[in-house]
Write a structure and sequence with these properties.
Blueprint lengths: L3 E3 L11 E5 L2 E5 L8 E7 L6 E7 L18 E8 L2 E8 L3 E7 L10 E5 L3 E8 L6 E7 L1 H4 L4 E7 L11 E5 L13 E5 L2 E8 L6 E7 L7 E6 L10 E7 L5 E8 L5 E10 L5 E3 L8 E3 L27 E2 L8 E2 L6 E4 L1 E2 L12 E5 L5 E9 L7 E7 L3 E8 L5 E8 L7 E2 L4 E2 L4 E8 L4 E7 L5 E8 L9 E8 L8 E11 L1
Parallel strand pairs: 26-37
Antiparallel strand pairs: 1-22, 2-3, 3-4, 4-5, 6-7, 7-8, 8-9, 10-11, 11-12, 12-13, 14-15, 15-16, 16-17, 18-19, 19-20, 20-21, 23-27, 24-25, 25-38, 27-37, 28-34, 28-38, 29-30, 29-37, 30-31, 31-32, 31-33, 34-35, 35-36
Length: 501
Amino acid sequence: MNGTYRNPVLNADWSDPDVVRVGDDFYLTASSFGRAPGLPLLHSRNLVDWTLVGHALERLEPEEEFALPRHDCGVWAPSIRHHDDRFWIFWGDPDQGVFQVNAPEIRGPWTRPHLVKAGKGLIDPCPLWDDETGEAYLVHAWARSRSGVKNRLTGHRMHPDATSLLDEGKVIVDGDRIPGWFTLEGPKLYRHDGWFWILAPAGGVETGWQGAFRSRGFFGPYEERIVLEQKDTDVNGPHQGGWVRTAAGEDWFLHFQQRGPYGRVVHLQPMRWGRDGWPVLGDEGAPVAVHRRPALPAQPPAAPATDDDFPGGRYGRQWQWTANPGDGWATQHSGDGLRLSCVRSADARDPRKLPNVLTQRLPGLPSAVETELRLDAGEPGARAGLVVLGDAFCWIGLERGADGTVRLVHRFGEAVAERERDAGVPCVAPGGRARLRIEAGPGARCRFSYDVGDGFRGSGPVFAATPWRWVGALLGLFAVAPEGPGHAGSATFTRFRITPL
């Protein structure tokens, strides 16, 4: 693009991003909440084009806590660092405390989660190993929903091996003492030019700003400044991210913007250090829409994968279950196509409650989503489909009737609804097959259609996708059956595609 890039550089829900450089490579991780696998790992050579290379967390722990969906819980706001020839990721589980995992290479093997600090409401942790002194530190924020505390950052000395903390902790920044500041969170900790720096947002994800704090000593006192805010741009609440310096010495800042059903999309801001020693982000503190690319080697255009042919029944790394996966949910086989078992559940009529929904992020640009489905299950009530999943849901797919026929059905559930309702008129699906399509237009307004052999037909009114509290809307594939004994059969999805509209 003529030497420029356009924000957002990751136009989907890569929430609470943090970034690190190792050699000529950049790595980014993000919140994954209650989905598994968690802690996505993205790679880039130019800070603009990113690919998903894996996950650092295979299953959430303790496993029984995440056997069922907990959409807004789990992995919150991780930090990624490279120290002592290892990658380290710290995150806060608001119900358990601060965890870390580490690995010799970005693709692993990653250690099992280690609880560094137990407690309710401990969120957004970030470590720092001080190369000048050999000491290690940890800073974290607080979730009032669990602890009754917010708007504060707490600092600890940490054992250099990151297994434990060396003190009880001290409030090092109290947002209540700063006029006009509230909901201070998401700290990222650095050393630069003889100062301890904390880059942390405040003011709330939709309306806030990005702050910077500095002190000569880790425990303070800190002085503060707002370094990025919306001003007269369209980027509301520029929020929470990480600073990275290229090998050539350029500084850049990656952060998120809250976009409703699309979740938290990721922007890249230029960064420099002003004459007064403070960081200057974006265009003199305002987010940029288009900017000169980083002075880094050219890289082919890239983005995290979305399409999948499911070779051998395997699904790509872009997919996550809505809880820790169970045995036999997806079956490998000799051909192509995702073969999902129709898992028996008392919640068969509410996909928000199902752990066996295979999801990926809703694209931030208008897109068409299409897949082909065959329902092989003979069990009455067995169903499978393509769903837009959030606080409200809408799905289209196939269901086996009591008379043995397979019908194309289209169902939805409002945010306050406990059960689904028809969104379209059911019809017979000859051969138990259908092509399913969702056109997600501006504002994530979704139109559903289907093809049972005579071309695509629209179904039902427009459905406006909705997020959960912290998670954007998801696209999902599922197969389920009513409670009962024995195996209920399976469904096969083929040729999953997402194309721009």
